[in-house]
Amino acid sequence: MDRRLVFAVAGWVVAALAATVAGLVVIGSFGGAFRGPGDQALSAEAVRRELALPAPPVGSPTPRPSAAATASRVVSTEGGTVVVSCTAGRAQLTSWTPAQGWQTDDVEPGPGGHAKVKFERGEAEAEVETHCEGDVPRTVVTDD
Predict the structure, then answer these.
(1) CA–CA separation, 84 vs 137, rounded Å?
(2) How far apart are CA 79 and CA 81, in angstroms?
(3) Omega cis (within 30) before 111
(4) pTM of the full predicted structure?
(5) What is the pLDDT of residues 66-96, one digit of tens each?
(6) Beta strands 80-87 and 103-108: pairing type?
(7) Which one, out of 37, 39, 49, 55, has a CA that is 20 to 30 A from the CA of 101?
């Protein structure tokens, strides 16, 4: 048998073993993220509840409200898209994404009596402000 072939096979075996060990280490380190309290697997209902919760805005440490008490609405403007929600009568921006070529300028994410975000592109502005009537988001969009 040719020496190069032996080294090639040995190298392939070593690489396969290293990849397997690395995969097992990664799966082991993330395993806790798929488990509930007490290191038990989450039930299907618990997974559905967690998936139903809105994601917090990027860079915002605000806690997520329970899905049952939250009313949300998606608002699209020329400047971007905003997801607004009301929980217990308090307005919150769940997420906001500027349109291509636009940037976020002024953000008051809430929760509070009102929440707003302003998108800008040059001299153009689009502002989305929301407040709650009960748990129903009411939104005013201003385009300049």
Answers:
(1) 7
(2) 7
(3) yes
(4) 0.52
(5) 544 578 889 999 999 999 999 988 999 999 9
(6) unpaired
(7) 55
